[in-house]
Amino acid sequence: MTGLKDLDVAVSATEAWLGDLMQRLGWQDRERAYLVLLAALHALRDCLPFEEAIYVGACFPPLLRGLYYEGCHPKRRTIRSRKVFLERIHDGVHRDPGIDPEQVAHAIFALLAARLPASEVEEAKAVTPEPLRALWPS
């Protein structure tokens, strides 16, 4: 660790999220899990209305929050279809044939449902484009 309390806490919290995702996917490869986590969070951010994307990001650990907002453009909300959403995830891992983007999407949405406040999850679900809502756990 860095020896800086706040930074160590931020790293630890992000590692906990990453470990949770790895467990949900049954993976051991941290690099691969990190790449799909970022790709899926960026895809989610870009399909939500801007204000909701901000509220969702505010619930993340500080380090993950910064990574989530990286490359964010308020006017660019481009993802409206399931196909494009899943392609964004797959592109984030260089179209690795060993990764099922739909499995990743379900795991990410389950991770969010488990780690975000229930009220924020319900709000995010409500404004997620209709073709993507089935990716959230029931």
Task: Please report which band the strand proportion falls in: under 5%, 5-15%, 15-25%, 25-35%, 35-45% or over 45%.
Answer: under 5%
Task: Count the beta strands.
Answer: 0
Structural class comes to mainly alpha
Helix content: 55-70%
Gross CATH architecture:
Orthogonal Bundle
Rg (CA only): 14 Å
Task: Explain what you see.
Helix 3 (50-58) runs antiparallel to helix 7 (118-127) and helix 5 (82-92) crosses helix 6 (101-115). Helix content is 65%, strand content 0%. The protein has seven helices and no strands. It has helices at 5-25, 30-45, 50-58, 62-69, 82-92, 101-115, 118-127. The protein has one domain (5-135): Uncharacterized conserved protein DUF2267 (Globin-like, Orthogonal Bundle), CATH 1.10.490. By secondary structure, it is mostly helical. 31% of the residues are buried. The mean pLDDT is 93.
